[in-house]
Amino acid sequence: MTERREVRVVQGGPILVEGPVRIELPDGSIVESDRFMVAICTCRRSKSYPLCDTSHRKVSRSGKRPG
Fold first, then answer.
1. What is the 3-state secondary structure (H, E, C) of the chain?
2. What digits encode the pLDDT tens for the residues 20-29?
3. Which residues pair with 30 in a beta bridge?
4. How far apart are CA 1 and CA 51, in angstroms?
5. Are 16 and 38 in contact, with CB atoms under 8 Å apart?
6. Is Nucleotidyltransferase there in the keyword field (predicted)?
7. Would you call 9 exposed, middle or buried from its count of C-beta atoms within 10 A (0-12, 13-18, 19+)?
8. Average pLDDT over residues 12-38
């Protein structure tokens, strides 16, 4: 039986997955992380996609940058 992992969807943010994880991308490349909790980007703004770098925080829902 496969071990169950906790997955949490954050509204307006990433998907949090209990690590370590191995992510296979559509092009067949693999991204691995040994962290205890991994944030997977859902907005595709991350410079380290598929891992989240909090880029989703830089643009509000109206599309305007804060400040």
1. CCCCCCEEECCCCCEEEECCEEEECCCCCEEEECCCEEEECCCCCCCCCCECCCHHHHCCCCCCCCC
2. 999 999 999 9
3. 24
4. 27
5. yes
6. no
7. exposed
8. 93
Residue 56 to residue 67: CA distance in whole angstroms: 15
| % of residues, the chain, pLDDT over 90 | 54
In terms of Cα–Cα distance, which of 2, 38, 7, 42 is closest to 21?
Answer: 38
pTM: 0.72
The answer to whether 10 and 16 have CB atoms below 8 angstroms apart is: yes
